[in-house]
Amino acid sequence: LERWDKEYVWHPFTQMKAYRREKPLIIERGEGSYLYDIEGNKYLDGYSSLWVNVHGHNHAELNAALREQAGKIAHSTLLGAANVPSILLAKKLVEITPQSLTKVFYSDSGSTSVEIALKMAYQYWQLKDPVRFSGKKNKFISLREAYHGDTIGSVSVGGMETFHHIFRPLLFERLETPAPYTYRLTENNDEEACKALCLDALEALLKERHEEVAGLIIEPLVQGAAGMITAPDGFLRGVRELCTRYEVLLIADEVAVGFGRTGTLFACEQEGVEPDFLCVAKGLTAGYLPLAATLTSEEIFNAFLGEPEELRTFFHGHTYTGNQLACAVALKNLELIEQTGLIASLEKKINFLAQKLAPFRTLPHVGDVRQRGMMVGIEIVQDKASKKPFPIHMQVEHHIILHARRNGAIIRPLGPVIVLMPILSMSLEELDRLTDITYKAIETVTAQTY
Ligand code: PMP
Asked: Averaged over 94-104, what is the pLDDT?
């Protein structure tokens, strides 16, 4: 298997030359909070299998929901027809998301849920007032270092130059506004100063260019892939107010932060924010199947009604859109979240994590520790004064991850940031072990390096 993996599989986001030098980790099965490789080694899943898993692996009730649906039908198309689980799921999503969101458009990955929101936002303005907005409102604002997916549309609103430059010209023109990266933008982690600076910069941009801008896309509360950048309280609300004032649609990308990760079911809830679009994926099926949804308001949907009808179709539809198996398992996931009181159970875990993370700050090569709910970023630096990351060629973060793996936990870095994104159903004992293994890995590897 190892040989065939190296011979046949092209891994995403992976330097394949380097990958081939190392022993691959081949996962064979999962059970609760653990993953098992083909040699029977057991690992705590400290990254929720790329931020998707909610109730644990190989979950009896999720498995049963899947089996039950498979016994009826696995898939039929949503183009020109409907199916039972997708109707029930849409109704449920509308009930649990912010009030103004009343329509659900399905797709199959976080990237496409974003791409759909961008296309809808763009088309909305053209339909709303074709004369006033002709040739206008065709750009999007996003935050510095933003990550919203890999399709050419979603990557064009991303702020990570590494993913971009190869593919220029991209699909949509992007305008950039600063991310509220308090650790980097202020001297003493001054959240209020950071918030003011970022909102002022956004307002200046909107004042000047709002007529060109269709929408602003943001990850509410935490910019995940950007390195777990946690926003100061009130930042999201400030962004909402500015978008409303300057007639720019707000797209909330909750692909990573949705379904409990930040401590509430959706991150927008924490600031009482109603976005014009809400993109969800990852945790929607609790880590079982690819499924995504873009929710939007009556106002946006209504622009796609009316005359002439042929101009008001929304041209997007994947073959597996609204897949029955995926919708059935998503429904069961949402039912379990309610039945198990998952969200209420998080407070204790979040506080426990905070307590366990405090000593990380005393490590000489830990510059910043950021936590929002069950999302954690530990930023590794050469020294606290310069805040400089280690040179990439030293692969410090990679060695930290390998050390943790040898001790029984799988975690992943994002650049210089070590990320913990535990499965939400993890017990306090498992969280205890996960943080201990991570602490030891950082302490040992950085001491060896420096
Ligand atoms: N948006 C955000 C915030 C994400 O974190 C991701 C994936 N990490 C995506 C979009 C893209 O989702 P997918 O990988 O399912 O296409």
From this structure: 98
DSSP 149-198: -SSHHHHTT---HHHHGGG-S-SSEEEEE----HHHHSSS--HHHHHHHH
**Could you tell me the two tokens for 255?**
């692909």
What letter would DSSP give residue 17?
Answer: H
Distance 118 CA to ligand 1 centre (A): 14
SS3 210: helix
Please check the confidence at residue 450 and state whether its pLDDT lies above 70.
no
* Dist CA 386 CA 347 (whole Å): 35
The answer to whether 108 is annotated as binding is no
What pLDDT is stored for residue 155 in this prediction?
Answer: 94
Going by CA atoms, what residue is nearest to atom 13 of ligand 1? 110
pTM higher than the cut 0.95: yes
One fold for both 2-55+341-449 and 66-339? Answer: no
Evaluate whether 199 touches 239 at the Cβ level (below 8 Å).
yes
The verdict on domain 66-339 having CATH code 3.40.640.10 is yes
Structure tokens at 69: 């649906």
Say if residues 375 and 46 touch (Cβ distance below 8 Å): no
Strand duo 375-380 + 366-372: pairing: antiparallel
What DSSP state is assigned to residue 293?
Answer: E
- Domain ranges within the chain, ordered by starting residue: 2-55+341-449, 66-339
Q: Is 253 in the pocket of ligand 1 (CB under 6 A)?
A: yes
Q: Does the beta carbon of 114 lie inside 6 Å of ligand 1?
A: yes
318 is in an annotated binding site: yes
| 150-185 confidence digits (pLDDT tens) | 999 999 999 988 878 888 888 899 999 999 999 999
Q: What is the pLDDT of residue 449?
A: 73
* Helix (H/G/I), strand (E/B), else coil: 56: coil
pLDDT digits 0-9 by tens, 120-152: 999 999 999 999 999 899 999 999 999 999 999
- Would you give the end-to-end CA distance of the chain in angstroms? 37
3-state secondary structure of 369: strand
Q: Indicate the DSSP class of residue 362.
A: G
The answer to whether the annotation marks 435 as part of a ligand binding site is no
Superfamily of domain 2-55+341-449: Aspartate Aminotransferase, domain 1 (3.90.1150.10)
